[in-house]
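Ticket #4471: structure output looks truncated?

Reporter: J.K.
Steps to reproduce: submitted the chain below (373 residues) through the standard prediction queue, then opened the result file.
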Amino acid sequence: MIVAACGPGSSGGGASSPASEPTVTPIATSPTSSGSPSPSTAPGPPSLVHCTAAVPAGDNLVIGTVVGDPAVVVRDIQDPVNAHTLCKFDPASTSQQFVSATQVAYETAAAQNIKSDLVTGTTAVLASFGAGFGSGQYAISPDGRSVTFLDGNAWRLSGPSGDRLLTTLPPVPARGVSPDTDDSYLSFSPDGLYIALVQTFHTGGTGATAPVQVRKAADGSLVYSTSGMTMGVWSSIPSQLYFEDSSGTVHRWTPGKPLSTMLQLHWIRPKASPDGRWIAYTFRSQGGLGTIGLYSVQSNTTSSASVDGRSGVRFLSNDLIWYFGERACNTCFGALPTPTGLTYIYSIAGGSEVVSRLTGVVDIWPHSTPPTL
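Returned output as attached by the reporter:
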């Protein structure tokens, strides 16, 4: 994935947030002919996540890291004041994410995506992937039955009906990486009907090989494609896909409708609230420091949620967002900001910010909730 130097590491479940501009050296790959096994039929290796407490039904959960412990954990944050750790991942696991309230997925050094049950400890192989830039990036369907992933230049979809090659993308050229404009977003829509790939690395293709695509989750058929876009995010139910062009103007793709032009935001790593009402994002202030913005999906308006010096926003719930502090760094490559070591939680309803014990946020559960909640 993308190399980070002066900024925080990967946030998991998607592209990393780079803080330098390394050179991308692609590795030539070809899609496997045999395909990956179905997620429901391939037994897996010993689990790399271990629980010391039962997962309470219906609670708000987070995968992340906590002050004083570098290990990635599953934490119950239903009561944020009395949050507590339930499970811990082994260091050999990466790119962790929730499959359900009691199942998680992660990548291994053996180039496999593994699903692990937090109750029984049993595992299953979701997919196997080869070498290549970004290879292994994956997303799980809302019902937990399918996985879509990148396997070198191949984009695949694996589920109960087997594994299929969706398309073979152009190779990644050797070039620098811009941390504020380059991104690779791969995700199922909240309603589970579509899969989106919005990326800036496998470029040069059109139609079925375009860098931006939306496909039906049921059969993988292409329903929309374009180029010149980045920083994608799904929001709302029925699902709508947002992304921005090179000028920073955000556009919205809605199934069966023409592409809509929204606001000029220059957003970085946008994240949607579980209920789809808000999209939180980072934007650069005049001095170059990050600031957290909030975009209202319903009203097509924006507001600021922080002072300058905040970045890397993630939702913890429909109301709470998490982000880290940053300051100017004159010694960093390209004079990029560097983390202060402090992280924060902001309440949208209360308009207030407090220091957080979470040092990193990888994923949350539930992924989506009814808009009324």
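Triage note (M.O.): checked the attachment and the full token line is present. Confidence is low (pLDDT under 50) at residues 1-40.
Status: closed, working as intended.
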